[in-house]
Write a structure and sequence with these properties.
This protein has 293 residues and is α+β, with helices and mostly antiparallel strands. It is 38% helix and 17% strand. The strands form two sheets. It has a four-stranded antiparallel beta sheet, with no helix packed on it. It has a four-stranded antiparallel beta sheet with strand order 2-3-4-5, with no helix packed on it. Strand 2 and strand 3 form a beta hairpin.
Length: 293
């Protein structure tokens, strides 16, 4: 009798584990897979327009301007002033252009605008101080430009940034793809066909730059070449500032100041009564001529 009871209890336990006695004798169906997440709705045209305007306003964050390539150049003073002024304007633009945006175009839009405007305003106040120093010497300007350039590279919004909002909101990410001002400007030089090398004519005075001292010469020059200044025309310094893109840039200093001029091949420029011309421009070399105007 005890054996029967034991076997009966064992059978009950086994049936409880295997489901014997259930109708049809089939196992329970597997659990359903989790429902797929609902994709973010596409942005409205108004949302794309809002984000495009926002990215246009924060252009200094997306594509900060590059400083002059050579801060030790004798003619860089005007370039330094221009660089600081352009950065100052771009930082002010963040505030002025975002003021007219409607933050409600996206959730957290107001927070996004505020975080960028605060960061731009803080750096803008510093650059304002630099640009207000009209009589700053060149060495001081070089320091201002170096500090400003470094600060731009490290510039981040004071809080929510666009990348974080895009990661959290698929609609914002889709709008970003469609907003043209949210992407760095394409380098148009990449699309230009390669230019065939220019065969430079033989310069009458070869590479004898000293021949230019009297204001009459035709010489072969390279970037950064220091050309003896024709002092009878008031020049104290003439330097080739660059040769690229089929043109040559020269810098000239004289008693009343300095200037930089871009010379296209065959097109003369008259400076202080001296005709300055790029006879021909090649790759990293050019033929330069001086003659009385």
């Amino acid at each position: 009798m005890r054996k029967d009871v034991r076997f009966g209890a064992a059978a009950l336990i086994l049936c409880g584990l295997t489901g014997c006695g259930a109708s049809g004798g089939t196992a329970a169906p597997p659990a359903s897979p989790p429902a797929p997440s609902t994709p973010a709705p596409p942005p409205t045209p108004e949302q794309v327009e809002w984000l495009n305007g926002f990215c246009k306003a924060i252009g200094v964050f997306i594509s900060p301007p590059e400083p002059p390539p050579d801060l030790r150049d004798e003619f860089v003073s005007m370039d330094l002033d221009s660089y600081l002024s352009s950065v100052d304007t771009l930082l002010d633009t963040v505030k002025y252009r975002t003021t007219g945006l409607t933050p409600e175009a996206f959730p957290r839009g107001a927070e996004l605008v505020d975080s960028y405007a605060k960061a731009a305003g803080r750096l803008g106040a510093k650059v304002d101080g630099y640009t207000s120093q009209d009589d700053a010497p060149e060495d001081a300007l070089r320091g201002f430009v170096a500090e400003t350039s470094a600060a731009l590279k490290a510039l981040k919004p004071d809080g929510l940034d666009l990348a974080a909002l895009m990661a959290a909101d698929g609609t914002v990410a889709q709008a970003h793809e469609k907003a043209e001002h949210c992407h760095p400007a394409k380098d148009t030089n990449q699309d230009k066909p390669s230019v065939a090398p220019v065969a430079l004519p033989a310069a009458k005075d070869g590479e004898n730059l000293a021949a230019c001292g009297d204001g009459r010469c035709e010489v072969l020059v390279s970037p950064s070449a220091l050309v003896p200044a024709p002092r009878r025309y008031g020049f104290t310094l003439v330097r080739v500032r660059g040769i690229s893109g089929g043109a040559m840039a020269i810098g000239a200093k004289f008693g009343s100041g300095s200037m930089t001029s871009s010379l296209d091949p065959g097109q003369p420029t008259v400076i202080n009564g001296l005709e300055v011309k790029a006879v021909a421009v090649g790759e990293g070399k050019a033929v330069l001529s001086f003659a009385p105007a």
